[in-house]
Amino acid sequence: MTLPSLLIDEIANRAVDRKLPDGSPYRSLSLMDSLQLARRYDLMGWEVEIGALENGVVPERYARNLHMMSPEDQVQLLQSRVSVIGLGGLGGAVTEILARIGIGRLSLFDADHFEDSNLNRQFLSNLDEVGSPKAEAAAARVGRINPSVEVHAAKVLVGRENAEALLRNSDGIVDCLDNIQTRFVIEDAARRLGCPLVSAAVAGASGHLTTVFPSDPGLVSVFGPRDAAAEKGSEASLGCLPQAVTFLATLECSEIIKILLGRGALLRGKLLTADLMDNTFEILRLQ
Amino acid sequence: MEAHVQIKLFANLKKFLPETADRYPIAPGISVKDLLIQMQVPLEESKLIFVNGVKSAPEALLRGGERIGVFPPVGGG
Predict the structure, then answer these.
(1) Testing the interface with B: which of A178, A273, A281 to mutate, by most B Cβ within 10 A?
(2) pLDDT at A161 over 90
(3) Among A169, A175, B44, B75, which has the highest number of CB atoms less than 10 A from its own CB?
């Protein structure tokens, strides 16, 4: 990506010297400066932020990531596109975290509207938005958290006929669905697109999570043969508690971030299981 | 010699967990499937079985000392 040299000059002029709490110095670009420069140069905020990072300036909103993620890492995230399918309990929390960490482009899909019964666990739902499309609420929320993120939010049911087209150009796909059958459809599309998939499922206070690369056996090793798999699981009677969905959502984001950065241990061929009632957390081998 | 296994049941299956789940007596050579039948855990719900942290078939035989985990289908989010 080539940015105008005038923009790079302006970033340098506006940057100020700051220090992290441990005294480490860095050059900082304020949130307002990022936004103003994006508007002035008709760019997305994430493009301006990449310009800053590539020229030794840290957008202030990412400053506290510096010791865990290098400027190159942050650029890598800002250049990435992640698709989130399902914007309920898992998807709401996933969207929140991915927007805050600075994934440059988010594609967000859900065909549903918020209902009263979503309020127990779904971060994107609030009193004003009961009855509103989840995709709309997700786009609005990302805009309030991090307007540098380019959002494509669609009120659409992801299915066999449209999954591949909707998920094209993703660097990572997060399965946040609330049923078992559609997960296989997403996995098929991810495989055809050559894209890694992170999948979590919850019931009550327990759940599990795995990461599937196109060459991996994948969800059949978790849910069994798709023809024999049910539509719904234990969640139909147990529901999903907010601490469980949010916990699994956090783990999904952790996997996606490691995939994008190309480092860290992944749950490929493994299933992380959690039961928050008796604090059991295990990583089990699927193959 | 008496053999025991440690059993962990998830989600909907939890209600079938015996009080002695941490040290459940078995006859060595019993299969996971027969153990689940003995505990009255519905087999059609016992979709995902792990023995000592590795996915296993219901027919896997137990000697004693194993840790067994069983998940029903879970798909919520």
Answers:
(1) A273
(2) yes
(3) A175
